[in-house]
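User: Okay, second chain of the day. Same drill as before: sequence in, structure tokens out.
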Amino acid sequence: MSKPESSKRNIILLIIVAALGYFVDIYDLVLFSVVRIESFHDIGIKEDKMRVMGEYVLNMQMGGLLLGGIIWGIIGDKLGRIKVLFGSILLYSLANIANGLVTDINSYAIIRFIAGIGLAGELGAGITLISETMRKEHRGYGTMLVAGVGVLGALAAVAVSQHFSWQTSYFVGGGMGLLLLLLRIGTFESGMFKSVSESNVSKGDIRILFTNRERFLKYLYCICIGLPIWFVVGILVTQSPEFGKALGAPQTLSAATGIMFTYIGISVGDIFAGLFAQLTKSRKATVFVFQILIIISSTIYLSSTGLTNSAFVWLCLFMGFAVGYWATFVTISAEQFGTNIRSTVTTTAPNFVRGALIPTTFLFEFFVKQFGIIYSAYIVVFLLTAIAMFALSQLKESFSKDLDYLEEDATGQHNILS
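Assistant: Same drill. Structure tokens below.
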């Protein structure tokens, strides 16, 4: 089968829709971190419980992302990438509207879990569609633009939270998602998926990932290269008020400000990573460079005794840039596997990375009890980066790889698109 030619106009529309979808996705994903303190005060959480209860709610959201990644990934391979784009955004939009109505911590956590399920489908389906639609030499530009525009949703979350209550901030997120559904009418399905859907090959069978040792390890390595990203965002930046106190900051550091500037850095980093990969024709070299930057930026942050607000802003920009290989990481995952399991991989991998924040948080808290918050952060960020570098070394370069192929199914039968 030759890959169908898509008009330039359709591809541009697809990139715009995917980028705006990811924009709303990121808005809703980081909103809790932005409004955590204000919303917790309003529902009666005591000051000394803020950090632990924050981890509880965030872990529930990440648990939803884990489950949702599996659900939407399988749906994407069985029923189509477009159905995921519609279904996921509808679910998390309604959940975010409900989130503005919570009055207790358990309701808050449960609704964040449901929102997490919805949030899990957006990026993977978008990246899969673009990877299968654009020319193999240029698809990195498409995924770069989706991520570069999408992560700016974090800035919108901060801006809205600064002018409106935390309840209204959640309502705005839900409303944007529902409006985006209208824009998605007219988007087209991947030609590769259409070819697979017309055949009797096994589609979206997650067992395929576990019936072959080499394939399972490849999947595991794809997940591992993204592990440091959410520790930086979910712990180092989200808990910046607590880190600032431990570092003797003269003023309380603002998590909302940290999130905003971190995501500005991520947006710039995503664009730079995409361009660097196109220039070097190597996604592996790109991710390696960014892993080094994570170590450097985190070390500077954790050693900044007396950290001022202005220095904090610059460090958040730096740390955000350092973890700005998110789109490159997801693109690598998409390029490693065949069409009949690609959506499952591309949707589950980033959500397993997000969900990995749950055991990472437990590990971090274990070390905090032994060594304090600063030294524990050093230990965890170095450990996660070492794991990511090893995993990266085990993957094959995927730049310009032809994606027009299938994986053998769970029974061992091998199929190739023709």
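The first helix runs from residue 8 to 42.

User: Thanks, on to the next one.
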